Amino acid sequence: MIKLFNTQSLKLSTKTVKRQIQMLLTAAGYRDWDVGIRFAGDKFVRTLNAEYRGKGKSTDILSFPFIKAIKPGVLPKPKSESDKDLGEIYISMKYVNRWCQDHNVDIHERLPVLYAHGICHLLGYDHEDNKDYITVSLFGSSCRYTPLIPARF
């Protein structure tokens, strides 16, 4: 199940967001797994970033995996259906809005890239290893070019 929480003023189509995320989970090989997406405020994301990463600044996205990957992209086999929860993704809508304005990108085109980025982190990929960085970047960038993940309706 895909759990969405939107406390921000930007109106998003729940159906579209869930479909985009479901397509990404399927592409990653985790179609039947759960994930939570929280569209949050900048201050809240900055607080999480400081508390969990030791960085006192805002960021566009934070991912908190519930399961430790065996290696990037490979999770242990779940013991039950309730163990199939990848984790939570937090997206700072204010930060993303600023980024989109600065780069002249529509937010509805940027969000699927961030969903992919967050899912990669939930699957154990990070930015520390060049191979992981390339995987995260390519998986995220591919969202812009695939007809399976429409930006909006």
Short description:
The protein has 153 residues and is α/β, with parallel strands linked by helices.
Number of helices: 5
Strand order of the largest sheet: 1-2-4-3
**How many domains is the backbone divided into?**
1
Radius of gyration: 15 Å
- For the record, what CATH class applies? Alpha Beta
Number of strands: 4
Helix and strand content put the structural class at alpha/beta
- Terminal Cα span: 22 Å
User: Taking all residues together, what is the mean pLDDT?
Assistant: 84
Task: Name its key features.
153 residues; alpha/beta; Collagenase (Catalytic Domain); four-stranded mixed sheet; 4 strands; 16% strand; globular; nuclease; YbeY_CS; hydrolase; MetalPrtase_cat_dom_sf_prd
Structural description of this entry:
It is built from five helices and four strands; from the N terminus they run βαβαββααα. By secondary structure, the chain is an alpha/beta fold. It has one domain (2-142): Collagenase (Catalytic Domain). Strands 1-2-4-3 form a four-stranded mixed sheet, sandwiched between helices.
Topology:
Elements: E1 2-6, H1 14-28, E2 34-40, H2 42-53, E3 61-65, E4 85-92, H3 93-103, H4 107-122, H5 130-142
Parallel strand pairs: 1-2, 2-4
Antiparallel strand pairs: 3-4
Helix pairs in contact: 1-4, 4-5
